[in-house]
Amino acid sequence: MLHTNCSIPVYKRQKLRNIADIPQYYKMQERTTLFADVILPLAVPNLYTYRVPNDWNDLIKTGQRVVVQFGKNKLYTALVRKIHRNPPPGYQAKYIEDILDAKPIVNDIQLNFWDWITSYYLCTPGDVFNAALPSGLRFSSETRIVRNDELSLEELTEDYFTEKEWKLVFSLQEKSELSIDEVVEILGIKSVQPIIQSLLTKGAARVKEEVREGYKPRTEAYVQLSSSITEKELQEIMATLEKRAYKQLEVLMAYMQLSEWHTGKPKNVKKSKLLLQTESSASVLDQLVNKGILEVNMKEVSRLAYTEGEIQKANPLAEFQQEALVKIDTFFKEKDVVLLHGVTSSGKTELYMQLIERVINEGKQVLYLLPEIALTSQLVQRLKKRWGNKVGVYHSKYSDNERVEVWNALVKNEDVQYSVIVGTRSSLFLPFASLGLIIVDEEHDSSYKQQDPAPRYHARDSAIYLAHVHGAKVILGSATPSLESYYNAASGKYDLVELNVRYGGMEMPEIDVCNVAEERRKKLMKSIFSPFLLKNIEDALAKKEQVILFQNRRGFAPFVECNVCAHVPQCINCDVSLTYHKKADLLRCHYCGYSMSPPVSCPACGSPDIKVKGFGTEKVEEELLLFFPTAKVARMDLDSTRAKHAHSTIINQFEDREIDILVGTQMVTKGLDFDNVSIVGVLNADSGLHFPDFRSPEKSYQLMAQVSGRAGRKNKRGKVIIQTQNPEHPIIKQVVENNYMAMYTEQIEERKKFAYPPFTRLVELTLSSKNQDDLDALTPELALELKKKFGNERVLGPEYPVISRVNNYYLKNILIKIEKEKYSGKVKEMLTEVLHAFYKKGKEYARMRVRIDVDPQ
Predict the structure, then answer these.
(1) What distances in angstroms separate CA 702 from CA 278, 679, 698, one per listed residue?
(2) Would you tell me the crossing angle of helices 246-258 and 271-278 to the nearest 10 degrees?
(3) Measured distance CA(320)–CA(659) in Å, rounded
(4) Which of 553, 554, 547, 528 is nearest to 662 (CA)?
(5) Residue 740 to residues 88, 479, 744: CA-CA distances in angstroms?
(6) In contact, 256 and 238? CB cutoff 8 Å
(7) What pLDDT digit, counting tens, does each position of 339-373 carry?
(8) For residue 734, which of 769, 708, 766, 763 has the smallest C-alpha distance?
(9) How many CB atoms lie within 10 A of CB 765?
């Protein structure tokens, strides 16, 4: 039952005192009244204050999870942020219902980091709480009605309960507890609370507010010999089994062998391993258990696989790598952040390994950040060969239980102590105790930016602050650094170390540009491939070499179109055309997930002449099989890698040369290292060049330069073939010349001229409403108020974005530009003040959704 006064139930006191290992059962005495400010897992702007029951004063600690009541009847898992003696002004504090942890699971450094995320990215503490903790450490709340077994129904008169009350009482006799939804169904009425309250008053039922933990430890069955059996009895048992039950004897003998029983200190044996070795059924083992010869016990085991085998030593560094390492060491004495700008295949990873070794030897931890899950497979194998089970992995393709185990291992410092964590952006929130180094590999990658939901943080920038609060160092690594990072290095905020040659004297790939507009004019194109690209693929396959083809669009075709009236099927919820997926034979929206079957005839004019237009990775894969029917072709995109181990399976198969041609989206451009790739093809280099975004030229250069780096990695010079309709475009030329500095110089001047990052900070407000008229009428009002607060020159919009309706919400953007040196916590105060005043103007204003994105990508 929910408790809103100081009467704390004895069973909860007992449980908590057992957790904390307090020997004294209960001692009532006058205690100081404590209050706890807690972070709720809700998007509310403030912390809420709860009263700590007096006899829990010694148990409550900052960073523990507690159960609190918020609202009328909801229980939430909250996190203790601060403990003090001040009652909250304006409301009476409710009591904390329960404490879930004996020790804090979030440390003070993490909480400091959470505060910074909240302040900088203009979000709520609850947003950060939800992003930081794996869902297995958060809880779901469910109210249940429970039968009171102490009440004797035989002693009650018929009129003690009403008809509906008796109906509910009898239902509770059949089923000891019921959910509220089940009560509604049984009674056939919606308002069941008065009846439930009456049963509570009459003592026929109790309310059980059940907080269920999501994380469940994995258990496995282990077999051992019954402790009561002597050696003499065992010999007699074996003699008996030999005559009457030979299969049981085989299982017993196998157990003795696997447990090393002859040593006098037998080990427990996994049940699965025992049955596998003897090829016996579980029923044979059950018979031995029923006879009291063997025992089966469940033990908690880790879900996380650890590498076993000989640990490899570090590889020797080349002279230019050694020089770079000396520079990094020197720079780290003065600054905390170093940008490592190294061309593809220059050996940046081996430099990271040398730095990791030093940090581990100092007894500190390393966080190795990667932008994509696809990259973790190769890297983790390399790291585990060097440091074995000191390496942990944390990303969204791990199950929630696996992520909880990594979290708990870092909190408890028991069993598995991770010195290196490899992960994607969410691993920033892990409970590190002593970080010494953060590596942000491929630091330019836009995947480091969280889009939805809040907090919309950038992992690279957040990693720099996290390192600051730990007193750690940061390495930002990339062959194509972001303009912001390179500007910070050029202006002296970071230090810069460059690697301009490839490891082992390998040459940079040869880059050829193919003018597909000219090829089409001459009618030489073979479907989506130029003859030049097809010839090079054919030559590579003949030499048993591998090929990577990059097309930054998944699906079979971007849209289908009627050849008569040019009608294109659109999403019913969003202002986008539907993408055709041939394997599923569906038209799908990549924004809201809506799908429909492809039309047989045009819904506008009735013509059956409907054709697919453009091409995605699915079509590339299909076309390749027509040109190279004996080649093994695989695709790596969002559709083909949804399964847990799909990334690593495809990468391993390509590494083992089971795949000849790998087709993919951005996933194939990032940091993968394959020995046998000689040809890389960029099928449509123009797709990102003309997108209406100030970052388009930079991102296009990065994508093409990165995918080019996959060619010719080990033994020979590779070749890159770029198909484009505009071979004279400056970005195409800069990629061909491998001229990062030319791209940087040109783009940084454009950014400076129009006041874009790194010269300003951007805050993008996206307003959304299901009513387009309200959106058009109200957004100019908000923009006007923002201009009054921030200045006319700093506020742009409102304007419709490229996709102006998503999931039936119409969208408009307002962009605020703030000089870099003027961005501070005051911005949040000013913006909050304007938004609060806006919401108070009326119901239509309050219904308007506002999404805030700091440093949008």
Answers:
(1) 56, 18, 6
(2) 120
(3) 34
(4) 547
(5) 57, 9, 6
(6) no
(7) 999 988 788 989 999 999 999 999 999 999 998 77
(8) 708
(9) 24
CA-based angle 23:26:32, to the nearest 5?
105
- Structure-block tokens of residue 58: 């010694």
Residue 639 to residue 653: CA distance in whole angstroms: 18
> Cα separation of 120 and 757, whole Å?
16
Is 598:609 a contact under the CB 8 Å cutoff?
no
The pLDDT, as a whole number, for residue 671 is 59
By CB neighbour count within 10 A (0-12 exposed, 13-18 middle, 19+ buried), where does 701 fall? buried
Tell me the β-bridge partners of 720.
511, 680
**Max Cα-Cα span within the chain:** 99
In a 10 Å sphere around its CB, with 0-12 CB exposed, 13-18 middle and 19+ buried, how is residue 12 labelled? middle
* Residues 731-749: tens digit of each pLDDT: 999 999 999 999 999 999 9
- C-beta contacts of 528-531 below 8 A and 24+ residues apart: 528/615, 528/619, 528/620, 528/623, 528/683, 529/623, 529/627, 529/683, 529/723, 530/721, 530/723
How far apart are alpha carbons 175 and 72 in whole angstroms?
27
Q: Which of 45-54, 89-98, 667-676, 829-838 shows the lowest mean pLDDT across its residues? A: 667-676
| Partners of 69 in beta bridges | 75
Q: In angstroms, what CA-CA distances link 755 with 51, 230, 700, 818?
A: 50, 85, 21, 9
DSSP SS3 for 809: strand
Residue with tokens 């020995």: 675
Cis bond leading into 453, ω under 30°? yes
Q: 167-173 contacts: CB < 8 A, separation 24 or more?
A: 168/195, 168/196, 168/199, 168/205, 169/199, 169/204, 169/205, 172/145, 172/146, 172/147, 172/204, 172/205, 173/147
CA atoms of 689 and 544, how far apart (whole Å): 34
Q: Would residue 544 be called left, alpha or beta, if left means φ above 0 and alpha means ψ between -120 and 50 degrees?
A: left
- What pLDDT sits at residue 164? 85
pLDDT at 730: 94
Q: pLDDT tens digit string along 293-347?
A: 888 887 756 555 544 555 667 778 888 999 999 999 999 999 999 999 998 878 8
Kindly state the tokens that stand for 803: 């996709």
**Alpha-carbon radius of gyration of the chain:** 32
